[in-house]
Structures are given as C-alpha cells and as structure tokens.
Write a structure and sequence with these properties.
The complex is a heterodimer of chains A (about 250) and B (about 60). Chain A has about 250 residues and is mostly helical. Helix content of chain A is about 75%, strand content about 0%. Chain A has one domain. Chain A contains nine helices and no strands. Chain B is rod-shaped and about 75 Å long. Classes of the chains: A mainly alpha (about 250), B mainly alpha (about 60). At the A-B interface, helix 2, helix 3, helix 4, helix 8 and helix 9 of A face helix 2 of B.
C-alpha cells in the first residue's frame, strides 16, 4: 500500500490523464508569480548601493541557475529509477528534463555573462563557477545528442541514464566551487541554514521569483512529457480512444 | 509598503546606466520561456495529428484488405 503511489508512476496512462490538470495549475501559478516577481524585482525592490540597477538581473539569473542544477539532479534520480525499476516514465522524464534543463542552463550562463559586463568588466572569465556551469550545459547537450545517436530507444535510454548519473558528480563541484576556489563569482545569495545577507525587501522578491520559475519548469516538463508519452504509447488502446475523442 | 523605485516609465526603461543589460536578460528570458511553451504546445498538437493520420491510414488499409 505504501508503494502504491510509486507504482502508479509506472503507468504512462495514469500520468497522462493527471498531468493535464497539474500542467494547467502549474502554468497559471507560474504566470501569476512570474508577473508579480518580475514587476517586484524590476520596479519595487530597492537599488543596490554597489551594483546599481544591474543587480536586478539576480531575479532571473539565480532562479534559472538553481533550476539548471535542480533539473539535472531530477534527471539523475530518474536515471536511477530507469536503471533499477525500468520505468518507462523515468526515460520520458530524462528526455524532458534534458531539454528544459539545457534551456535553463544556457539562460543562466548568458544572463550571468551579461550581468558580468557591468559588474566585473567582462562577459566571461574561466572562473570555477562559470566553467562548472558550462560543463553542466555540455552534459545536457551530450544527453540530448546521445539519445539521437542510437536507433534502439531502450539502449538510448540506458546510455542517457548512465551519462546523467556520471555527470551528477558536477553538481557538488558547482555548489562548492565558490568555496573550494578563489572565484570572481559571489557566494550563494540564499542559503537554507543562514539568514540572507540582503535585506528582506530584496530577498522576498527573489524567493517569489524562485517559486515562479520552479512552477514554470513544472509546467514545461509536464507539457513535454505528455507529448513524449503520446508518441511512445501511440499503439496503445487508450491513446487510440483519446485521439478519436479529440476529433 | 510598495514604493516604486522609478519616477517615470522612461526612467524604468533607462535604468541608468544599466537598462540595456537588464532588459536584454529579461527579453531573453521571455523568448526562452515563451519559445519552449509554444514549441511544446505545437509538438503536442502535431503528435495528436500524426497519430490520427496513422489510424486513418491503417483503417483504410484494413477496409481495402
């Protein structure tokens, strides 16, 4: 009984039927929080006395950088589930997480580079944090590319899962890069164990934006996964019935 | 208390001197999030259309044989 919730995830049909509702709510929550968080961050949060208005990039950069790492962690968990339990949905999740995670990772790198110009005087330095994030982007691209290199989808899934697991070693390197090496990049803006160095008028909108981008990621993941489920299960009776009802 | 940090819309857009940096980042964010949303919606629609066509072809083939 305790494992019933876990086994339900093994059914693509069970997921597809529920994901539409979850996607709907995640989409609306994301939209409302994104509008609120962005307006708050851009127009209401006070200006930084050192960085001026350029610090407002934090309200996009930090959430997408968090997500780029969190989605990779999610992909590593899905990889374990796929390799141990051979759950179809885990393979689909890896596919969706790779695309969405890659987009967030590139956005984190580019927004960081643009923020770097007024703050550090350069778009790019081979700093430990920046380099480890670039490696994360290459890992995402590698997983996307690896899948298309195989004809057998089952083999492709296993290969991607193994690469996702091996690449997870990069996550603690990203997290601790600012402590292990002398870097230009500032330490974490928000920590669970410490009070933020910023005043509440700055970190509250940041927290709001983190929630907004997490909801947006959930929306995008469900949107992608639902399509992948349909493609994979196209021969299943429930898909036939669903498509006929769609006419 | 909500306190606007800019005296006018012009000042908000200018964000002197960092407007181009800040707005280009948010513009890019909008393009990425909006682009992914549209892409996934279209691919869902395309997947349904493709499966519908496949069924039509298969049912035509069955009726011929």
């Amino acid at each position: 009984m305790a494992w019933q919730w876990f086994h339900q995830w093994g059914s693509p049909r069970w997921f597809y039927e529920r994901a539409e509702r979850w996607q709907f709510w995640a989409g609306w929550i994301a939209l409302v929080l994104l509008v609120l968080g962005t307006v708050w961050g851009l127009a209401i949060a006070p200006v930084d006395y050192q960085q001026g208005h350029s610090y407002r990039i934090i309200y996009l950069h930090v959430p997408v950088a968090f997500l780029a790492q969190a989605l990779y962690l999610g992909m590593a968990v899905a990889a374990v589930v796929l390799l141990v339990w051979r759950m179809k949905l885990a393979d689909i999740a890896i596919q969706a997480l790779a695309v969405v995670g890659c987009a967030f990772c590139v956005l984190a790198l580019v927004s960081g580079a643009i923020w770097g110009k007024p703050t550090w005087g350069t778009y790019w330095v081979w700093d430990a944090r920046l380099t480890s994030m670039l490696i994360l982007a290459f890992l995402y691209l590698g997983i996307i590319g690896l899948r298309s290199a195989f004809i057998d989808p089952e083999l492709a899934g296993k290969a991607c899962a193994i690469l996702a697991l091996v690449g997870a070693i990069n996550l603690p390197i990203i997290k601790y890069s600012v402590e292990w090496w002398n870097t230009l990049h500032q330490p974490a803006s928000l920590k669970l164990t410490e009070r933020p160095a910023m005043p509440a008028s700055m970190w509250v909108p940041l927290l709001l934006n983190i929630c907004a981008y997490y909801a947006a990621a959930v929306y995008l993941l469900f949107a992608s996964m639902r399509t992948l489920v349909l493609r994979r299960e196209r021969r299943a009776q429930w898909v036939q019935a669903l498509v006929r009802a769609h006419d | 208390m909500i306190e606007w940090q800019f005296e006018s819309i012009g000042a908000l857009i200018a964000m002197t001197p960092h407007g181009p940096f800040v707005w280009s980042v948010y513009g890019l964010g909008l393009v990425v999030l909006g682009g992914l949303t549209l892409h996934f919606r279209q691919s869902h629609r395309r997947a349904i259309t493709r499966i519908q066509r496949q069924f039509e072809r298969e049912s035509e083939h069955e009726s011929e044989t």
